[in-house]
Amino acid sequence: MARLITHLRHVDLAVPDFEKQREFYAGVWGLTEVATDSGLSFLAAEGSPEQYIIRLRKAEEKRLDLIAFGAATPADVDALAERLGKAGVQLISQPGEITTPGGGYGFRFFDVDGRTVEVSADVATRQHRKIEPRESIPVRLSHVVINSPDIDRTREWYEKHLDFALSDTLGHPRIGDVMHFMRCNPQHHSLAIARAPHVSLHHISFELRGVDEFMYGTGRLLRAGVRMIWGPGRHLAGDNTFSYFLDPHGNTVEYTTELEELDEDTWHPQVHDFTKPEVSDQWGTANQIDEVITRESFNDVDRGVFVAPPV
């Protein structure tokens, strides 16, 4: 299937305690700060060609600033902007030059829930390196999960306007669907949409080299006193490992590895019963999911809905 969006580039966060957040991601979490500006920090994964995968911005209120995706060419960026404009999607900016690290050509718009989304092409690649055995730092950004009060509406919007496809769904026998896993390439999901009482960030996931590195990284964070809320384990949908932690501002962040790659021509989405223990954790090694974990995943109400970030 031909898509205008190719992959997930970066996730941008605004936080009141900028220095504390910056110290966490550039320190124990294992990212590399590659550029700074007044109240801004751009953090890269050593194994990724992306210029950066996390941007931090100092702000009075915590919020998700934006989610950025890649496109193959400037022509694809223009085609997507034209499509969204004709469909009545609110554009924040028209396609043009991007001035963040790596440059490029792109534009921003609001999704159906009011999140800011950026799509760009021609961003210069960063010199990166092979992550060595037992080196327990992120290789790349894996996926992002967003909270929505109406996950079917949000799913349909991403399918219609951005060509995302449904890979799988988590369902509950009493309350219905609770999460949709969406893909923009053969990876099982680059985006997932979770059921929640309000619009917010659910979690950001970072890919490690392999299971060994995933476990070393999990252990390093635990020894450093970072709060782990769930894990380590292995999900059924996506078949990836998971250890979920909280960053200093209460955002859930995940170490993962071995996310499934699909044959898109033959794949058929399934609905997995989330109440079955093997669905949430095939290994049976993680702590049981409970109300505390669920509440942490709801996160704080996002104050950035239909408000474009200043940079």
From TrEMBL:
Alphabetized GO MF terms: dioxygenase activity; metal ion binding; methylmalonyl-CoA epimerase activity
Record CDD domains: BphC5-RrK37_N_like
One GO term of the biological process aspect: L-methylmalonyl-CoA metabolic process
Residue stretches making up the VOC domain: 7-122, 140-258
UniProt keyword terms in alphabetical order: Dioxygenase, Metal-binding, Oxidoreductase
Highest taxon in the source lineage: Bacteria
Alphabetized InterPro entries for the sequence: Glyas_Bleomycin-R_OHBP_Dase (IPR029068), Glyas_Fos-R_dOase_dom (IPR004360), MMCE/EMCE_epimerase (IPR051785), VOC_core (IPR037523)
Gene3D superfamilies registered for this protein in UniProt: 2,3-Dihydroxybiphenyl 1,2-Dioxygenase, domain 1 (3.10.180.10)
Entry protein name: Catechol-2,3-dioxygenase
Organism: Thermopolyspora flexuosa
